[in-house]
Protein backbone atom coordinates (compact mmCIF):
# COMPACT_ATOMS: atom_id res chain seq x y z
CA UNK A 1 0.00 0.00 0.00
CA UNK A 2 1.39 3.39 -1.00
CA UNK A 3 1.21 6.24 1.50
CA UNK A 4 1.96 9.92 0.88
CA UNK A 5 2.69 12.96 3.07
CA UNK A 6 3.35 16.66 2.59
CA UNK A 7 6.91 17.61 3.57
CA UNK A 8 8.82 20.88 3.94
CA UNK A 9 11.85 20.69 1.61
CA UNK A 10 14.03 22.96 3.76
CA UNK A 11 13.46 21.38 7.18
CA UNK A 12 12.49 17.82 6.22
CA UNK A 13 9.50 18.00 8.59
CA UNK A 14 6.00 16.76 7.74
CA UNK A 15 2.77 18.78 7.76
CA UNK A 16 0.37 17.67 10.51
CA UNK A 17 -2.02 20.63 10.39
CA UNK A 18 -2.72 24.12 9.10
CA UNK A 19 -3.39 27.28 11.13
CA UNK A 20 -5.96 29.33 9.23
CA UNK A 21 -5.88 32.23 11.71
CA UNK A 22 -3.12 33.79 9.63
CA UNK A 23 -3.15 35.08 6.07
CA UNK A 24 -1.62 33.25 4.28
CA UNK A 25 -2.26 30.12 6.39
CA UNK A 26 0.72 28.71 8.31
CA UNK A 27 1.63 25.04 8.19
CA UNK A 28 2.16 23.10 11.40
CA UNK A 29 5.13 20.77 10.93
CA UNK A 30 6.72 17.99 12.94
CA UNK A 31 9.27 15.21 12.60
CA UNK A 32 7.12 12.95 14.83
CA UNK A 33 3.65 13.17 13.30
CA UNK A 34 2.17 13.65 9.83
CA UNK A 35 -1.06 13.60 7.89
CA UNK A 36 -1.11 10.62 5.54
CA UNK A 37 -2.90 10.21 2.23
CA UNK A 38 -3.68 7.07 0.24
CA UNK A 39 -2.99 8.62 -3.17
CA UNK A 40 -0.63 11.20 -4.64
CA UNK A 41 -3.61 13.04 -6.16
CA UNK A 42 -5.30 13.37 -2.77
CA UNK A 43 -2.08 14.69 -1.20
CA UNK A 44 -1.54 17.15 -4.07
CA UNK A 45 -5.08 18.50 -3.72
CA UNK A 46 -4.55 18.95 0.04
CA UNK A 47 -1.25 20.72 -0.66
CA UNK A 48 -3.15 23.30 -2.73
CA UNK A 49 -6.15 23.48 -0.36
CA UNK A 50 -3.90 24.20 2.62
CA UNK A 51 -2.10 26.99 0.76
CA UNK A 52 1.33 25.41 1.07
CA UNK A 53 4.11 27.41 -0.55
CA UNK A 54 6.90 26.35 -2.89
CA UNK A 55 8.86 24.89 0.02
CA UNK A 56 6.40 21.98 0.34
CA UNK A 57 6.28 18.78 -1.72
CA UNK A 58 4.33 15.53 -1.74
CA UNK A 59 6.52 12.54 -0.86
CA UNK A 60 5.90 8.82 -0.65
CA UNK A 61 6.56 7.33 2.79
CA UNK A 62 6.77 3.83 4.25
CA UNK A 63 4.94 3.06 7.49
CA UNK A 64 6.29 0.32 9.73
CA UNK A 65 4.60 -1.44 12.63
CA UNK A 66 6.77 -0.93 15.70
CA UNK A 67 4.99 -3.30 18.09
CA UNK A 68 1.75 -5.19 18.63
CA UNK A 69 -0.52 -3.97 21.38
Structural overview:
The chain is of the alpha+beta class and 69 residues long. It has one domain. It is built from one helix and four strands. The strands form two sheets. Strands 1-4 form a two-stranded antiparallel ribbon. Strand 2 and strand 3 form a beta hairpin.
How do the SSEs run, as a string of H and E? EEEHE
The chain-level structural class is alpha+beta
Average predicted confidence as pLDDT: 95
Side by side, the strands of the main sheet go: 1-4
Please tell me the total number of domains.
1
| Rg from alpha-carbon coordinates | 13 Å
**Uncertain runs:** none
General shape: globular
| Strand percent estimate | 25-35%
Number of strands: 4
Give the fraction of residues assigned to helices: 10-25%
Task: Count every helix, treating DSSP H or I runs of 4 or more residues as helices.
Answer: 1
Distance N to C terminus = 22 Å
